[in-house]
Design a protein that fits this description.
The structure is a homodimer of 342-residue chains.
Chain A (H helix, E strand, L loop, with lengths): L3 H8 L3 H9 L6 H14 L5 H8 L4 E6 L5 H16 L3 E6 L4 H13 L4 E4 L8 H6 L6 E4 L9 E3 L3 H14 L5 E5 L6 H16 L8 E2 L8 H8 L7 E4 L2 H13 L9 E6 L3 H4 L5 E4 L2 H16 L12 E3 L20
Parallel strand pairs in A: 1-2, 1-3, 3-4, 4-5, 6-7, 6-8, 8-9, 9-10
Antiparallel strand pairs in A: 10-11
Helix pairs in contact in A: 1-2, 1-3, 5-13, 8-9
Chain A binds a DNA duplex (16 and 16 nucleotides) through α2 and α4.
GO molecular function, one term (chains A, B): transcription cis-regulatory region binding
Protein name (chains A, B): Substrate-binding domain-containing protein
Keywords (chains A, B): DNA-binding, Transcription, Transcription regulation
DNA sequence: TTGTAGGCGTTATCAG
DNA sequence: CTGATAACGCCTACAA
């Protein structure tokens, strides 16, 4: 109904002239331009992006796939991406994968059919991802977010997970902790979990301490304290725990306090991600801050560079240790009462 | 390059036949079908949705606009919407408005140009929204999420904010509280804030108690304790506070504890939204649960019904009071020491 | 400054 | 069962 043809008719000009009234108004006689604009308004004309996209062979759309939006780290990053994309004239198609390969597959296929100009993906394990393997054969620009560079075929935006977790570990060691454990969500095989655990291990070893295997929690957002009891109790129980994300840390703190323990009195807890909320809790969360807003901006910028055909080499984003109230000195070891001097 | 024409050529058939191999394979001779499929695979053919959308005059896309993704209530709802939409064959274009009218305007215009099949919007105040006024003149189906029905021109999905907050208030009253206040984010004029405050007021009045004005915090996610001190201290200070969202409540609890007060010992705190995280905190959050996942499902279903030309009449979604550890009995009033009997 | 015309990739209609 | 053709709405050489 309200297309350029009708606008042209009503204005008494050709399709081309009507089109030019929008794409290059300065090339029109003012009077002509006015007539077209007038007609467009009268008809409630609104340019059809779908037709523009078909014609231009470009959609100005980016496809974004995150594992979930339940974790604020992804939601906050997505928010930043959306703002950056909008500022550059791009729209976002947003999907969640739950890390399920079949969904990842379907989502990416769908987005390719939609002819998105670029993809920003977060997958479980970039090294063993079927969907990434397939994407190598396509020529749609693709950027990994959070996933380490891996095969280095795809550009990637994220912090240095290895160093970041090593820093967190050293922080706890500096506070005096010696028996430090680490817990993670149900995806121990994820590339980030591996790197973070490796960072922890290295820092422990470098300090002459014993590193423990990553303890797997049944969910990404909730600890099962019962699974932790064995390593907590006793004289040689842990005095500090690193978590692979803030939600786990928050849940752990809650469970500990509910079980009558104090944080950090009985156990120090550190998170990872630096979600906003962590600042406001009591005890506030000690954590490794990933700059989520910068993530979003850099991700979009990098992806747009890829789309322009450039070869951006994004550097790892800087992480920051945010000291909160959830990590402190270890409890004083139990001392047998000594005879007093006096 | 890899379009139907080339596939047709390679398969030695016409465009139409090539197309049919995908849209109605059963209408082709098996051998023909095989040849087309073979050719498609050889060329890496992938149907072009943009062309399909242009041709079909429908995009199978929904436009979603939320105020922000920093608040898990929106992120969790969005996640549910995405899953429901995907299940129905729709994609989501996601945007954030920060409640800024100019962004709302630009976003909606953009989505209309993109010819989304429907819009799901959350605005600050549905009664005084310029963008909604404009949308009334368009014929793109539009659904409000969270906003109360307002003018009743647009369908709307959400809880009954009035009753929900009244329920929360009655809960505190039942616990023994008499001096109960309410705090909100910086958008006191939002339709939901109004309704919730009204619900609070009614419940207070019905119990013969004094309702107070909504106290405005500078941000949606963070309290300024200094602004609250006046109403907290003293013998007639508040014993309980209702918050318009969970993040405010969590922040309030953190600030209170950091200032040496206990929750709920000194002050009971209730949130609103029921974000997952609230369960895991210590003290766990007493709150009014909005069924976010159901929100998402119902929103998508309702919007799809609108798109089909039906006239769905979504009922308010049921809210649930979740009792947590952050609300309890009020502190015993200060008693002047009495002469002991003995 | 404005008009003409072809094509972006797909699908529905109508013949054959 | 298959082929030819027009149309979805827009843009942009190329002409005039």
């Amino acid at each position: 109904m309200a297309n350029l043809i009708n606008v042209a008719k009503l204005a008494g000009v050709s399709r081309a002239t009507a089109a030019r009234a929008f794409s290059s108004p300065e090339s029109l006689r003012p009077e002509t331009h006015r007539r077209v604009v007038e007609a467009a308004r009268a008809l409630g004309f609104r340019p059809n992006k779908v037709a523009q996209q078909l014609r231009a062979q470009a959609t100005l759309m980016l496809g974004v796939m995150v594992p979930s939006l339940d974790n604020p780290v992804f939601a906050e990053q997505l928010q930043a991406m959306e703002e950056a994309a909008r500022a550059a004239g791009y729209s976002l198609i947003v999907t969640t994968s739950s890390y399920e390969p079949s969904r990842e597959e379907a989502i990416v296929e769908e987005m390719l059919r939609q002819r998105v100009d670029g993809l920003a993906l977060t997958v479980a394990d970039a090294d063993h991802s079927a969907v990434l393997a397939k994407l190598r054969r396509e020529n749609t620009p693709c950027l990994l977010v959070h996933n380490p560079p891996a095969t280095s075929y795809f550009s990637s935006v994220g912090v240095d997970n290895h160093t970041a977790m090593a820093d967190a570990t050293r922080h706890l060691i500096a506070l005096g902790h010696r028996r430090i454990g680490m817990i993670g969500g149900p995806l121990l095989q994820s590339d980030r979990a591996r790197l973070r655990h490796e960072g922890y291990r290295e820092a422990m070893v470098a300090a002459g301490l014993t590193s423990l295997p990553l303890i797997e929690m049944p969910r990404h957002t909730q600890v099962a304290l019962s699974q932790l009891e064995p390593v907590l109790g006793g004289a040689d129980g842990l005095t500090a725990v690193l978590c692979t994300n803030d939600l786990l840390a928050i849940s752990l703190i809650g469970e500990l306090r509910r079980s009558g323990r104090s944080v950090p009195g009985d156990l120090s807890v550190m998170g990872f991600d630096g979600i906003e909320l962590g600042r406001h809790l009591y005890p506030s969360l000690s954590t490794v801050v990933q700059p989520r807003a910068e993530f979003g901006r850099v991700a979009v910028e990098t992806l747009l560079a890829l789309i322009r055909g450039e070869d951006p080499q994004p550097r790892p984003l800087p992480h920051v240790l945010r000291e909160g109230e959830s990590a402190g000195s270890p409890p004083a070891p139990y001392q047998a009462p000594e005879p007093s001097v006096s």
